[in-house]
Design a protein that fits this description.
Largest sheet: 10 strands, mixed
Number of strands: 42
Strand content: 15-25%
CATH class of the domain at 198-363 and 389-455: Alpha Beta
Shape: elongated
Distance between the termini: 46 Å
CATH topology of the domain at 198-363 and 389-455: Chloramphenicol Acetyltransferase
CATH architecture of the domain at 198-363 and 389-455: 2-Layer Sandwich
Amino acid sequence: MTISEQPAKSKNVAAIYPLSPMQQGMLFHTLYSPESGIYFEQFICTISGNLNVAVFKQAWQQVVERHPVLRTLFVWENRKKPLQIVRHQVTLPWTECDWRLLAPSEQQKQVEEFLVSDRTQGFKLDQAPLMRCALLRLGENTYELVASFHHLLVDGWSLPILFQEVFTFYEAGNRGERLSLATPRPYQEYITWLQRQDIAAAENFWRQNLQGFTAPTPLGGNRGVHHQGNFLDITFELSSQITDTLQSFAQQHRVTLSTLVQGAWSILLSRYSGELDVVFGATVSGRPPTLVGVESMVGLFINTLPVRVQIPEDTAIVPWLQYLQTQQIEREPYSYSPLVDIHGWSEIPRGMSLFESLVVFENYPVDAALQEPLASLEIDHVRVFEINNYPLTLVVAAQQTLSGKIIYDSDRFDADTVTRMMGHFQNLLTAIVTQPELPITQVPLISNTEKQQLISAWDAHKTEYSSNYCLHQLFEQQVEKTPDAVALVFGEQSLTYSELNVRANQLAHHLQSLGVKPETLVGVCVERSFEMMVALLGILKAGGAYLPLDPDYPAERLEFMLADAQVSVLVTQSQCLDILPIFSANKVCLDTDWQVISTLSSENPVSQAIPESLAYVIYTSGSTGKPKGVMVNHGNVTRLFAATQDWFKFDARDVWTLFHSYAFDFSVWEMWGALLYGGRLVIVPFWVSRDPEAFYDLLLREGVTVLNQTPSAFRQLIWVENSRRDAEAQRGGNERIALRWVIFGGEALDPTSLLPWFERHGDACPQLVNMYGITETTVHVTFRPLSMADAGSRSSVIGVPIPDLQVYILDEHLQPVPVGVRGEMYVGGAGVARGYLHRPELTQERFIRLGIRNNPVTYNPLYKTGDLARYLPDGNIEYLGRIDHQVKVRGFRIELGEIEAALNQHPVVQENVVIAREDTPGNQRLVAYIVADAVKSESPQIPSTTKETTWTSPQLLINELRQHLEGQLPDYMIPWAFVLLDSLPLTTNGKLDRRALPSPDLDQNRHTSFVSPQTETEQAIADIISSVLEITKIGIHDNFFELGGHSLLATQVVSRLRQTFTIELPVQTIFQSPTIAGLAEIVIGKQLEQVDDDALAQILAEVNQLSSQEVKLQLNKDESI
């Protein structure tokens, strides 16, 4: 309804007044999601007894006549602020159904169908009354009452008043008496009271209260932005014993049960989010004690307020709870504050929720009121259906026992997750009152039973794959089996197992003569060649361990590694001498010294090396900038292959590539995966490893069956393969790769990037595998076969631990976290390396000995990975990124991989990376680097499958990518700048080289510069927004919410757009396209939809692209004809 007429003069209008802040919020959310059923309340109970239906119906009508709020409707169209209008008279809609003749099962079915149908029907907010009743008769004296109403009218505290009055009227009417109750105070008096409050004092309080809180507390779950509002609930009830303990504890320490509940929920949020400063919403009664008669008023008095709770590290529970109680008292004078205003006073940007969970503590539940004795009727099976707009709502009721439910958005959370969360909440409540001496951060989230179940599941991988042999000894056994088989290929040359063994033996004897023995570290600086493998094998056969020194490393790094490792023997080539520092100890040049070495024995040398002996030291980057050497034993490596052979079944028919630098531990897997099983190892020349086209040719030519790649390198291979396949198809050729395994490692994998590969090859042959790993835990830790389903997910699932490894996910206090909760990964088992060379303090810090059980076995070292992860319900692990690489921009915690995955879904994006740059100190901003299909920086003609257009400039593509992300991600996750590249820079190890990414071109990314409206449509929209926001200058790319807009103002804008352009427009539109340019495009599209004639539609589209000056010029021309 619109009230362009004067409604106050109508005979059926009793009052007109504004909405309360809570009503305004509910109205907005109802309009924003009209199909969701949000704030539709449905009260259901069973009535038993000889019910006089006519009298019962009349009792309900009498209550409606007593309370003006029950006769209220709402108007908002074409108004600056919405209003509520009270009718003098309304008739309560009443439905009766008689299902006595149906079988009980059919009755139940009919009841459920009726409830669903009733919810689907909803209410028209501009038509009073916004409530109705239904009486479903199931037996001679059994009825189901369904009272439905919109939350805009009443709150939970009002319901007991209503139902008490209904049954009071009924009892009197059933006795034939005429009942006269005192006239209640109208809801309008509360609105008047609100208008007298000091909003400036409230603003000052809330600004101080929320100062420094810049990001909503994350809840986890499915973080996609498109949810359908499918809400479910799970109930709980504490025992009477625990309830009594809680009440006694509260009384003893002078806190309320509500404070206990909020304290437990705060700790739960802190543990689930990893934050020590959390915010959630709390519903307060909102009935000011200074308002006369408020206790008997009916209406929507409740308000939702943010509750900020800080979790101090060492504070005990009781003083902390008492502090929370004090905070509640301090908030009370400002509990009337509109949430939309509080949000505006906070440091969290508009358009984002201030909090994602809500706590409702009901200290006057409806069903308790209905338990009061009735003369002729019995009421039971009371239940309430309700939906709000928060992903999680905890509702707690205090009766004989503490009970409640968690209402959750099923699009975001699954039932198992919420059930576990509910169990953890109960654990916290119990622990608070039974272990009050504990510091807050040590209050146990999980029970001892759950803790033991978690650890037992993690320890289930304690299978042993010990070997009595060293790497070189297993290689020698393979030489005995297949001496004439080809072991190595390099270019056009090859070496058999026997030839390789002889050369390695000769070098080993020479090294032994120089004093090499077990634990002797020998440096190796050799280019990719047969000599490289001869050197590594020779060192191991001599009993020593190798230190790889990549010739492509900077001289300073090589010098540091040689000095830090205290190398006494160096194996190299003459062409590498110039890059090496002066080395005074023993030096072996494989080319110039080989004439002497080749005269030595070709027999396998004897050494004292055992599986526990050092096999190699590989240096990795350190957080302090100083590289650290990781010490790995023979046994660490041999058990890796034994533990994974049941999965891979490698054999002598396999052809492997040595793609990676031998200074990168992925090479360990490549070398020994081939040589321990009799396979063929193709050494990839350095320049080939840098050239995806040449490398793809090598894969075809050599018939490679096992390929190991970093995700960055494999993405480049996918592009080459796609372009080659297209060319071959045109020529009628059919190149086929022989791959049966593609194994990823070295960096995090975005599975969405694999979609083009799966579309060509399927997901069975070759089988793609994601293997998370770390140098300190011997190459690989987990195993995850990938399928087409993974390519549709933004999650990086790394699978299950290798059978002889254990992955523990612990909190900052080294306690196990529950399934679904993120924590830091710790790896234990036979793959854990010795530690860091000559760095005992760092070794002690990262290789910790932790007694998770009271069992000496668990005191074996665990490696502290620095990686965040969580266990999923199916036992798989989801990788969540580095702890030390967490990105917070504008106060929001951001998973960069989520943005990258969204970009990968655009059809022209081949690969991308998003980083947070801080080119100006203190100003950290997101930048996306894009390699687009068929796009070179000098020729940006980019075809799109999403629009029938081409981009004629990089800026147009950037705008398209930005719009693509705006449809999927919240505003704070949209990159500030986009950079188009021909390819992403890689390090020598095939990983992304982030330091080589260039600064963005500001001219291509000026998306916030002022651009005035260019068309009549844009100008009209600008006028509307300027009027609503009361600002004079607004550009077509300015963000409505960044200019100060909020949800209620958004409703006004959409309402005026509907009126101005005579189109249907949902409220969501402005949230999805908060700029004038975006809105103009949508408005034009809506207008075109309403035009039947195609020619007229085209004319309209052309006119809308004209500026106002061009329109006037054209009109003048027409008049002169």
